[in-house]
Write a structure and sequence with these properties.
Elements (H helix, E strand, L loop, with lengths): L1 H30 L2 H20 L5 H17 L2
Length: 77
């Protein structure tokens, strides 16, 4: 029981971290701020990799989100 609670807290924290990081990148991309979006994307990729490493999300989901962010960032001029 206690172990499940500890894991849940850790998982929720990791999930919140990568979701907020991805949202920040999407907002900056929508605003057209390429340099700021690139910096935010580094943080988002790191958070996604850590979440995938800890099995909070699957490796494929991490890769898919990173790919989509990179593709959207490349469209900005």
């Amino acid at each position: 029981m206690r172990q499940a609670i500890v894991r849940r807290v850790r998982n929720v924290h990791a999930k919140d971290k990568f979701k907020n990081a991805v949202k920040d990148v999407k907002k900056l991309i929508a605003a057209g701020k390429k340099s700021e979006a690139m910096e935010a994307m580094k943080k988002a990729m790191s958070a996604l990799d850590k979440a995938a490493k800890k099995n909070v999300i699957k490796k494929g989901k991490s890769s898919r989100l990173k790919s989509r962010m990179a593709k959207a960032l490349a469209k900005i001029k």
